[in-house]
Amino acid sequence: MSKLTGVVSHHEAELAELRADRELATAYLKVAMESLDNPNDRAAGLLALRTVAEAYGGLGTVAAEAGISRETLYRTLSPKGNPTLKTLLAVLKTVGLRLSVASERHAHRYACPRRPTKGRAYGVRR
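The chain above was modelled as a monomer; its predicted structure follows.
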């Protein structure tokens, strides 16, 4: 059986695209990280972060710069991983990204109260 020449795996092509386009990598990770809210789909977000880490230096380099062992990073960014906030922030910082917060698309029952109307303070009745 002959080996095909010039063939690149999907994973290698994905890494090259993410490496070449920082905005694409950010959007890719942003969408994937939304899956972290769903315990049944959490693996997608972790694997996306792993892919971005591979694209931006490789897991060994990212682990060293983040101050964790390569084995810990592999385990943490596996489908069953459960990264600590410290690890998540360190990996994101190492690849040049940061964590941010956005409101949910739907109303939440613990949403912040509306601002008071002009001249009225919260909890004050006249």
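Residues 10-94 form one domain.
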